[in-house]
Design goal:
Length: 699
């Protein structure tokens, strides 16, 4: 079939952008129910083709091997007769540990057999012990510190120096550079922070219990009961009953003394940790080597964005308030925090006629994978090839393996697709690095291996797995992470692919969401799974427009969250007596809707644990991705020249070049708070104009 051949020559240059009338082998594979192949002849290859992992006991062998290799590398690093660059030794040390730790962490959470999961967990614990040993190895630290500050005994590059400083900063996280008394305090604080975080996250999802008698009778049936108590386990944002939404918001977010105590202690411990390690605040420590470089720049950025967003968000809220008055019949009704998700969804359904179920038949999993393949071919000359696995290579029979192949460079790496829900599997969409790419001394390249995990329903013999538009966005997002790993060609695995600053790691994945929201891209693969007819132009435009509805108010909410996180992890003298008092003050400065009395939203905000002082990262990543899209891809999302430039100047470097420098060089403008804010405001204005035009046309 012509469409399976590589496009060659001028006439076929754009063939992969056109809608096709039949499924490619890739689409067919992902649209078919996976099945377990019976092996009669071939030997077991082991998980991820690692011969040690033909059975679960192999994890103990991996642990022993890496323990011995670690000791060899330590001796090489501290030897007076060292021949290699210090950074090369440290990267090999990191690579050896990460190969076992990352693999074990994934198998621990993903393998359906408990004996594998337990062996992997034991390996994780062992690697943690090795790392703790390294973190107290003064001689090793001094050897690295000497090189980082005074230069190596062999010639080094700017990348070598940058990566050496990253290793040194990682080393200093344990306080090894401090006096022993202070170092021990750092260890205790880190342990206490871990425990407080775990307890806070557990409490953040515990349902609120409230006497039934205190809830209006008209809405009691909206909530489950337990004896004389009703249980509220969420915000009921999609309920069409305004009283139920209000009750859920006020009950679920009712202040918890225990959660307030945990959060207060967590923030105090983090501040103490930052101070002991020589930083002004915990936020200064967390943002070291980040894209924005300091909390001061984050504040400038969100303040600038707030000034620009306020009138635009207020306009969004006025539309929602009018909708509320019309629906309730109360001309004096006021919009509240519990209303915004509901009226955003209502606007999508009514004004834009964008119902998720309407689009389902056009987004088969195979069709979406075909769309990704089309896009990768256009931008990078890369194909995603479904590859048969060896016996014992995967952890379940519904896994797909993709070989990522460049038209000239050949095999770039492997992506394992763990897409379907199953008992015991984490209910999250995420990307796992199993093996990072790196350049070996002989010039060969260690190929990256990653897993993309989703939780889709299994395909049936009656039809393939169908994705909602939000699921399509998630697929493109996670594949953005995977392609970052595949296309990086770094000297060192410590900085390969997604191993870069937190506020840059999301840029490639968020950028992929822009492609998934562009009608020209979606048009290439959105076709009915039965008739193969393409999605109508009207549906296509409505779908893409609906993704940007009320984007100013949604962005303002993210700014508010980011500001709150920064202030919590900043100067304690600028905070209120309680975390709720701080929230009230921040909300009045950064969000248009008022604080709701007797609520404590922050006590449900579990991201404060995993993204402490870094919640702004998504906002910065979104901003940079928007800027890249507007500069290089908005005019033509299939532009090969732009794709190659993006690959060579951004993706190829991973974290090997400071991310601020990397982005500034690529965009040819400095990343000032004003430039960053303006890129996002420009996007919001363009999208609002498109939506207004569409609503006028339909009216």
């Amino acid at each position: 079939m012509t469409l399976l051949k590589k496009p060659t020559g001028v006439l076929l240059k754009h063939c992969w952008r056109k809608s096709v009338t039949t499924w490619t082998p890739l689409a067919t594979a992902f649209n078919s129910p996976p099945y377990k192949k019976i092996n009669f002849t071939r030997n077991e290859a082991g998980l991820f083709c690692m011969p040690e992992l033909k059975n679960h006991e192999g994890f103990y062998l991996l642990k022993d091997n890496v323990t011995n290799h670690t000791e060899e590398l330590i001796q090489e690093a501290i030897s007076p007769n060292r021949k290699r660059k210090m950074v090369q030794i440290f990267d090999e040390l990191s690579d050896s540990l990460c190969k076992v730790a990352d693999l074990s962490e994934f198998i621990r959470v993903a393998h359906p057999q408990s004996k594998y999961a337990q062996a992997a967990e034991d390996a994780c614990i062992s690697i943690s012990g090795i790392v703790e040993h390294l973190n107290t190895h003064k001689t090793l630290f001094m050897a690295l510190s000497n090189v980082a500050h005074n230069g190596d005994i062999v010639p080094t590059t700017d990348v070598d120096k940058h990566v050496s400083k990253l290793f040194l900063f990682d080393f200093e996280q344990s306080g090894i550079h401090l006096k022993e008394e202070e170092r021990e305090k750092v260890v205790r604080l880190n342990d206490y922070i871990l425990q407080l975080g775990q307890k806070f996250m557990h409490g953040a999802v515990v349902p609120t219990s409230f006497p039934r008698s205190q809830v209006p009778e008209s809405i009691r049936n909206y909530f489950p009961s337990e004896g004389d108590q009703i249980l509220v386990s969420g915000l009921y944002t999609n309920s069409n009953n305004g009283m139920a939404r209000e009750a859920a918001y006020k009950l679920y977010l009712y202040p918890s003394e225990r959660q307030e105590e945990l959060l207060t202690d967590l923030l105090k411990c983090r501040h103490a940790l930052g101070k002991i390690c020589g930083f002004q605040t915990y936020a200064h420590r967390a943002l070291n080597s980040s894209t924005v470089e300091s909390p001061e720049m984050v504040k400038e950025f969100i303040d600038e964005l707030t000034r620009e967003l306020r009138p635009r968000a207020d306009a969004d809220f006025r539309i929602m308030e009018e909708m509320k008055r019309k629906e309730s019949g109360n001309k004096n009704a006021k919009l509240a925090a519990w209303d915004t998700p509901y009226f955003t969804s209502l606007m999508k359904r009514n004004a834009l006629n964008a119902n998720a179920n309407e689009f389902l038949p056009y987004f088969s999993l195979g069709g979406c994978m075909q769309g990704l393949d089309n896009l990768m071919r256009s931008l990078y000359g890369i194909s995603l090839q479904n590859t048969e696995m060896e016996p014992g290579e995967s952890w379940h029979n519904d896994i797909y393996k993709l070989s990522v192949v460049h038209e000239k460079e050949g095999l770039l790496g492997y992506i394992y697709c763990d897409f379907f829900e199953r008992n015991g599997k984490p209910n999250q969409d995420c990307h796992f690095t199993i093996q990072g790419g790196k350049r070996w001394s002989d010039g060969s390249y260690q190929l990256p291996i990653v897993v993309v995990m989703l939780n889709l329903s299994q395909p049936r013999w009656t039809g393939p797995t169908l994705l909602t538009p939000s699921r399509v966005d998630n697929l493109f997002h996670e594949m953005g992470h995977a392609m970052h790993s595949m296309l990086a060609r770094t000297e060192y695995q410590h900085v390969t692919g997604t191993r870069c600053s937190t506020d840059f790691a999301e840029v490639p994945s968020v950028l992929m969401e822009y492609f998934a929201s562009d009608p020209r891209v979606v048009r290439t693969f959105a076709k009915h799974f039965q008739t193969h007819k393409p999605m109508s132009e009207d549906m296509l435009q409505r779908l893409c427009a609906s993704k940007n509805l009320f984007s100013a108010s949604e962005t303002q909410l993210q700014v508010f969250y980011s500001a709150l996180d920064q202030i919590y992890h900043g100067d304690p003298s600028k905070q209120g007596a309680t975390t709720t008092e701080t929230l009230k003050n921040v909300q009045s400065d950064y969000y248009s809707l008022p604080y709701v009395e007797n609520t404590a939203w922050q006590l449900r905000f579990s991201h404060l644990v995993g993204y402490g002082a870094k919640y702004y990262s998504y906002l910065i990543s979104k901003t940079i991705a928007s800027w890249i899209w507007q500069t290089y891809f908005e005019e033509n999302p299939f532009n090969r020249e732009s794709g190659e430039k993006y690959r060579q100047e951004v993706l190829a470097h991973g974290g090997g070049v400071p991310s601020r420098q990397l982005v500034a060089n690529f965009l040819k403008r400095d990343l000032t708070p004003q430039n960053l804010a303006q890129s996002l405001i420009t996007e919001i204005d363009i999208n609002n104009d498109k939506i207004k035009h569409m609503l006028k046309v339909e009216a």
